[in-house]
Amino acid sequence: KKTVRDIDVQGKRVIARCDFNVPMQDGKITDDTRITAALPTIEYLRDHGAKVILMSHMGRPKGEPKMEFSMKPVADRLSEYLKQDVVFVSSPAVVDDAVRRAAAELEDGQIMLLENVRFRKEETENDPGFALELASLAEIFVQEAFGTAHRAHASTAGIADYLPAVSGFLIEKEVKFLGSAVENPMRPFVAIMGGAKVADKIGVIRSLLSKVDTLIVGGGMAYTFLKAKGLEIGTSLLDEKGVELAGDLMREAEEKHVRFLLPADVRVAAAFDNDAASEVVPVDAIPQDRMGMDIGPETVKLFSEAVREAATVVWNGPMGVFEMPNFAVGTRKIAEALAESDAVTIIGGGDSAAAVKQFGLGDRMTHISTGGGASLEYLEGKTLPGIAVIPELRVPFIGGNW
Ligand code: 3PG
Fold first, then answer.
1. Is 36 helix (H, G, I), strand (E, B) or coil?
2. Dihedral sign (CA 388, 390, 393, 396)
3. Among this protein's residues, is 34 annotated catalytic?
4. What is the C-alpha separation between 303 and 220, in angstroms, rounded?
5. Which of 2, 12, 72, 197 is labelled catalytic?
6. What GO terms fall under cellular component here (predicted)?
7. Which residues contact 398 (CB under 8 A, 6 or more apart)?
8. Ligand 1 center to residue 21 CA distance, Å?
9. Is there a binding annotation on residue 151?
10. How far does the centroid of ligand 1 lie from the alpha carbon of residue 150, in Å?
11. For a FRET experiment, which of 115, 229, 257, 295 has its CA 20 to 30 Å from that of 165?
12. Residues 6 or more apart from 326 whose CB is under 8 A from it?
């Protein structure tokens, strides 16, 4: 794909779509990974003399200018990191005369951030008029929003109808790691899937079954698979509609000679509560009135062994209710197994990325994706609309037209 390296940005107005949809609590950013991940591209544009216009969505304000979803805290954080004032014009319309003026007045190396693009309902409708409003602010479009690349919205896809489009370094990095993991993995290739709903992961599990040597299912989803094997799961999370699918997937794994690992033992509790009394039981002895909250020590051993033998590991979804300290052990142990392994370790975004960071093991992974839904769709082999709009780099051949 064409990247910012392939174009001359000196003196040009460049509009870059980032994914600054960061978790917030009481008006404060609680994890700014998505901001720091975009800095190399922003700094590159700035240092090469571009007038930089950044845009992103935050949350799902559904076309209403709700101030709790304002990009202002992001503008402040960017100013701190970039050590320069990032211009922020608070406009509920995202683009208006004041914003156009501010964009026109930018000097080389200056940076501005637009208000939340989802303050306009036309954003998620991929409305050509809104895409053109955004495009009219600049001369070049840079796609840097990997986390939102699975959405065909005005700022992620439509805008490329009006401006030459290139990708930023984050897109390049995500595609490199996620792409090589699924297309050309070093073997043994082990995928670890967790999280609550089978339905959310069905596509990616199915697609990975054609690629991996071992597929591990843990977390809330595992109980649906255990149920499909005919085991009693007490009051554990059950995705009823997913039982049949789970059975199909296990059969498919067998046909494809993929080793399919499920928990052997689990930590169960009487209530969905960190302080609930809990015990470890084998999966074929889950009491009727108990729910599975985490994987047990035997399972940790089993899964960690598979990780130790792997050359590539892709992990998406926690192994238990890791938000509750008493049920975070399994997820932490698996994160530690990845951290200690020599394999290429790739963490699909969302909860597993949050877990790895919470345990302070972020630096020990090969790559932590900034995409949740986007990384799943990418691993599934789907075409992401936000990436599809970036043209391939065409190399001229001597004497020919191109
Ligand atoms: C994400 O956090 O997954 C992305 O920012 C996309 O957000 P969305 O699911 O609201 O489109």
1. helix
2. positive
3. yes
4. 16
5. 197
6. cytosol
7. none
8. 7
9. yes
10. 9
11. 115
12. 274, 275, 278, 293
110-157 tens-digit pLDDT: 999 999 999 999 999 999 999 999 999 999 999 999 999 999 999 999
The CA distance from 22 to 362, in Å, is 17
Q: Domain 187-342 classified CATH 3.40.630.10? A: no
- 4-172 homologous superfamily: Phosphoglycerate kinase, N-terminal domain (3.40.50.1260)
B/e letters for 181-200, b = 16+ CB within 10 Å, e = fewer, are bbeebeebbbbbbbbbebeb
Residue type for position 336: E
For residue 68, give both structure tokens.
């709790």
Q: Within 184-221, where are the H helices?
A: 198-209
Q: Hey, what are 254's tokens?
A: 């067998």
- Please tell me whether residue 191 adopts helix, strand or coil conformation: strand
Q: Write down the residue that tokens 């199909």 correspond to.
A: 248
Ligand 1 contacts CB of residue 148 (under 6 A): yes
Residues paired with 70 in a beta bridge? none
| pLDDT tens profile 226-251 | 999 999 999 999 999 999 999 999 99
Q: Please give the structure tokens belonging to residue 139.
A: 């001369």
Q: How far is the CA of 101 from the centre of ligand 1 (A)?
A: 30
> Crossing angle for the helix pair 351-358 and 329-340, nearest 10 degrees?
80
Q: Is the peptide bond before 188 cis (omega within 30 degrees of 0)?
A: yes
Structure tokens at 188: 């043994």
Average pLDDT, the chain: 94
Please give the share of the chain, as a percent, with pLDDT higher than 70: 98
3-state helix, strand, coil in the chain (%, to 5): 40, 15, 45
pTM of the model: 0.90
**By the 8 A CB rule, do 316 and 376 touch?**
yes
Q: Which residue has the tokens 């992001």?
A: 74
DSSP state of 221: T
**Among candidate residues 295, 286, 287, 210, the one with its CA nearest the CA of residue 261:** 295
Every domain of the chain with CATH number 3.40.50.1260 lies at 4-172, 187-342
Q: Which atom of ligand 1 is nearest to the CA of 147?
A: 4
The token pair that represents 170 in the structure block: 């984050």
